[in-house]
Design goal:
alpha/beta; Rossmann fold; 34% helix; globular; binds 2-phosphoglycolic acid
Length: 259
């Protein structure tokens, strides 16, 4: 895992956007895995700027999102489909038919999850997966206690995730946050050829510590990335503040990035 420690979230978002933009330039037909939440918003803004400046085009890019709340319509203003449309898809030149988000209203959610995985495979797999990290160490909605080999399925949110999500979304209303979601599994995520995880703020410091320097454990599902051979973490000083080898990671990643 390469840990890129940046002075703030603006610098981290730009660096992560550079990595994605380089891939899109190199392979205009690449397949991206995308994430929602407050964390990637700045980075999506940077990518939108690149499109506006005609540095890159998403015209032929295909995307699959990590997860969706179970029971929310794609038109619901707190659904992840709505979030993606507003925060990225409307701002870039992607073809909406090439963007995929799990259907939270699927009559048969198990079938929906299987079909989602099959579609990713048919597209050749995910070239680069964007991730955030929950304060409990989750990736996508894979909460503590989820197998590190899990596949896309219906999952159950922990009280801490429900609280985090109510604070940032759902107008602060705890009882409006769905308790279940459809989510790519940890095993599914780890099949992406490259992973780019963003983490900002003191509230993520314990999760980042667990992911990077804790044992690999289903108690912190992000720790599964320790076994991925091309995983990048772009974080700010606060999120990196509990890492024992922070300075070493910062030096090493800067050297690797320079080539
Ligand atoms: P956040 O969520 O970006 O809103 O902090 C991250 C996550 O739960 O994966």
């Amino acid at each position: 895992m390469e840990i890129v420690v940046c002075k703030d979230k603006a610098e981290a978002s730009r660096k992560a956007a550079d990595m994605i933009a380089a891939l899109v330039k190199r392979n205009p037909k690449c397949v991206l895995g995308l994430a929602t939440g407050s964390t990637p918003v700045l980075m999506y803004g940077e990518l939108a700027k690149d499109v506006k400046a005609k540095k890159i085009s998403f015209r032929q890019v295909k995307t699959w999102n990590l997860d969706e709340y179970y029971g929310l319509a794609p038109t619901h203003d707190q659904s992840y489909r709505y979030f993606m449309n507003e925060n990225l898809f409307k701002k870039i030149d992607i073809q909406i038919k090439n963007t995929h988000v799990l259907n939270g209203l699927a009559k048969d959610p198990v079938k929906e999850c299987k079909a989602y995985e099959a579609a990713i495979k048919r597209a050749g797999g995910i070239d680069l997966q964007v991730l955030g990290i929950g304060s409990d160490g989750h990736i996508a909605f894979n909460e503590p206690g989820t197998s590190l080999k899990s596949r896309t399925s219906v999952v159950y949110l922990t009280p801490s995730t429900i609280k985090d999500n109510a604070r940032l979304f759902f107008h602060g209303k705890l009882d409006e946050v769905p308790t279940r979601a459809l989510s790519m599994g940890v095993g599914t995520i780890c099949e992406a050829k490259r992973v780019v995880l963003l983490a900002f703020g003191k509230g993520k410091a314990d999760a980042v510590k667990g992911m990077v320097e804790g044992g690999m454990s289903q108690f912190c599902t992000a720790s599964a990335l320790q076994a991925h051979n091309d995983a990048w973490v772009f974080c700010d000083e606060d999120a990196a503040s509990k890492l024992k080898l922070k300075d070493y990671y910062a030096w090493r990643s800067a050297t690797v990035l320079k080539g």
